[in-house]
Amino acid sequence: MLASTFPRRSTTGKTVSKLVIATRESRLALWQAEHVKALLEQRGHEVSLLGMTTKGDQILDRSLSKVGGKGLFVKELETALEQGQADLAVHSLKDVPMDLPEGFALACVMEREDPRDAFVSPRYACVDDLPQGAIVGTSSLRRVVLLQSLRPDLRIEPLRGNLDTRLRKLDEGNYDGIVLAAAGLKRLGLGPRIRQVFEPEQMLPAAGQGALGIEVRAGRQDVIDALAPLAHQTTWLAVAAERAVSRAMGGSCSMPLAAYATVAGEYLQLRAAWGDPDGKVPLVRAQSAAAIADLDSAARLGTGVAAQLRAGGAR
Ligand SMILES: NCc1[nH]cc(CCC(=O)O)c1CC(=O)O
């Protein structure tokens, strides 16, 4: 398939184009790609999807942190962009590495869904109701260390796979409860399965959680222009601060790191936490705020908070 974008003038005088979205084929990835497709179509673009399977989708038995991390979900999509089979790739921003490979750019960050984590259980209404030593499923090191600080008695067991797989493993009786991103559940209409959403004070979200990012080949100004109306500036500022914490900490998903920013009035407030997977160092927390200026100042806020985490003992 040849690349797709030959901008032309629509009757309204706006440039419209044919755009191909590269997407993973999990139900959540397809929902997200369809969501972007619908928004672009509303603006007069002609949009189709190119579904692909990534390495990350094929590895279900091991923790991702052990097999190579976030890049596993984006590499094949980037190859499609590089070879001109697709013009844009829609990602859960949480899964996008801090530094994109040479030649690629984050063209757009969209409005955030619920950024919080959610507790799902057939029997228990919340984590506090779990009996001593109950089994909770998650493979996220961040969720492991934050759960341990809430409830040191819990037995935390690995849980991998896409959302449907994880819920199935819960329903098969392997766990007393599991922790997932609220955003994914809500997008797939699975919100009713949520028993408890954790407030950020209890379980601080991961950098970028709940936000969608759109990746393009650097220099594809036509595509970047088409995506500009989909951007959400306050979300973009918040995730720039969060991702700067991860970057400064050398972040990958093998790091038990949380970073969450909110916009309050004219200020960007950023909180972060780092936990020791071996349980030897107590949880380290840091926070800071700055007047909202631009993406660079948001990133500086993140770098400062990362320095605080390290000063507090985070590695
Ligand atoms: N790491 C997998 C992943 N990537 C994005 C989401 C959920 C939605 C989001 O954060 O946008 C999930 C599932 C989860 O963490 O439970």
TrEMBL record:
Binds 1 dipyrromethane group covalently. Residues 19-223 form the Porphobilinogen deaminase N-terminal domain. One of its GO terms (biological process) is protoporphyrinogen IX biosynthetic process. Its cofactor is dipyrromethane. This is Porphobilinogen deaminase. Keywords: Porphyrin biosynthesis, Transferase. CDD domains: PBP2_EcHMBS_like. The porphobilinogen subunits are added to the dipyrromethane group. Residues 236-310 form the Porphobilinogen deaminase C-terminal domain. NCBIfam families: hemC. It comes from the Bacteria. It catalyses: 4 porphobilinogen + H2O = hydroxymethylbilane + 4 NH4(+). Pathway: Porphyrin-containing compound metabolism; protoporphyrin-IX biosynthesis; coproporphyrinogen-III from 5-aminolevulinate: step 2/4. It comes from Ramlibacter lithotrophicus. The modification S-(dipyrrolylmethanemethyl)cysteine is found at C253. Monomer. The lineage of its organism: Bacteria, Pseudomonadati, Pseudomonadota, Betaproteobacteria, Burkholderiales. Its EC number is 2.5.1.61. Pfam families: Porphobil_deam, Porphobil_deamC.
